[in-house]
Amino acid sequence: MSDLSQIVKAYDIRGVVPDQWDESVAELFGAAFVTVTAADAIVVGHDMRPSSPGLSRAFARGAAARGASVTEIGLCSTDELYFASGQLDLPGAMFTASHNPAQYNGIKMCHKGAAPVGQDTGLADIRALAEQWSGNGAPDPAATAGVITQRDVLADYAGYLRGLVDLGGIRRLKVVVDAGNGMGGHTVPTVFAGLPLDLVPLYFELDGTFPNHEANPLDPKNLVDLQAKVLETGADLGLAFDGDADRCFAVDERGEPVSPSAITALVAARELAKHPGGTIIHNLITSWSVPEVVAEHGGKTVRTRVGHSFIKQEMARTGAIFGGEHSAHYYFREFWNADTGMLAALHVLAALGAQDGTLSELVAEYDRYAASPARSTAPSPTRRAGWPRSAARTRAGRASNSTNSTASRSRRPTGGSTSAPPTPSRCSASTWRPATRPPWRASATKPSPSSGPDAAPTSRVNTASALAGKVFLVGGVRRGASHGGGSSSYRGVLGRLRQRSEVPCRASRTGEPFRPEH
What we know:
By secondary structure, this protein is α/β, with parallel strands linked by helices. The protein is about 35% helix and about 15% strand. It has 16 helices and 20 strands. The protein has helices at about 25-35, 50-65, 80-90, 125-135, 155-165, 185-190, 225-235, 260-275, 290-295, 310-320, 340-355, 360-365, 390-405, 440-445, 460-465, 490-500, and strands at about 15, 40-45, 70-75, 90-95, 105-110, 150, 175-180, 195-200, 235-240, 250, 255-260, 280-285, 300-305, 320-325, 330, 340, 470-475, 475-480, 505, 510-515. It has a six-stranded mixed beta sheet, sandwiched between helices. It has a five-stranded mixed beta sheet with strand order 8-7-9-10-11, with helices on both faces. α1 crosses α4 (about 125-135) and α8 (about 260-275) packs parallel to α9 (about 290-295). The longest helix has 15 residues, at about 25-35. The two termini are about 45 Å apart. The relative contact order is 0.09.
């Protein structure tokens, strides 16, 4: 029996082609997929990687051999595949490795209605069947093979998204879009066609070898070209999509990255205007701004773990109207609870075009906390990543630091003195908190609940105090004093504690504390 554990992940399949898998394995996955889902028809799409068309067609052959009809939609983004699955009410498979290098490829699978396929919802069974057949031979074909047909759904996808967000009355905007030679170059022209937008395309040529930069906007170096083009053209904003165009990042008119948490809060406010009292999902490490904005707009929040299959399941369980992750995945109930960066981008364009201010002014209401360097998504043309976004914030931060240089989790006013709350237009006095150290942090004896989701051993805070200042994290990489690896290393301990908002992040090279984003 072949071992496919190296390529079958928590909620998708991903590996190097042809070293770890090839078309013969893809054919087995196709047969296993329709067997586990008991589907008599499926939809299949693929991205622009050189290996994607062959792998996709092999998967379709395997599915058809087991009696399932296959609708091939060809080149598409991942959220376009989710649209097809939802609109046609069919299980689906998308061939992509997202932002991974060119030699990788993978499969994102879903049940009908774009419901996620993960380890607990069919993926483990699909792997087991594929391993069994790989070792013992392919299964016998069905008495009647399925039919493979082709269908183009791009125009329907674009029309559906535009029907969810009204952009007809917005002022004209100039927008730079960096597709990174990925599928955004295929979908953006159709979705944006006829809208009051002046599009400046960057790397729209479909090329799965990624000749210009990796299609991973989460890495700061991959936003540099977009930032420069926004400044060069005087654009109102810039958008960057990853390789399969299911994630979208934004930079403002100054070339400054916009926090995905701020986008989550902005879109949440817009969705709550349509669905008052609705539930918003956010993962554990999004900004405090998100639940604050949701509460101010009359909504409810539910926190969940990172990962699209977990968030989609929670969306379905709670009936949430919207969900957002710090990694720029955005989920919509109106989009079958699936993630679509394109729909989030349309919301940003609609919000910006409906008023006369700049994007930086617009998102200031939703970006209330300064990010640590580990949370920064890109370098800025005008400042170091992770530092305050304006001179006013710099002054406010220094004022609070002079009061207590080790403060953490502190609210940063957007301007003026720290001795008074910001104006009501920025945040209400009832939600503003001065930049002071919480009482428990001064004594490092914060009481821990003995039960429930926040229960923790009493030694956790003392451990944090002992480690703080000895190491610091930049982009998730341990810096500072040398120490052995493993689960007991400083990096492992601090990384876990910081995700629970228990440890301040300190940059020892500058001597100034950074305040965690959440």
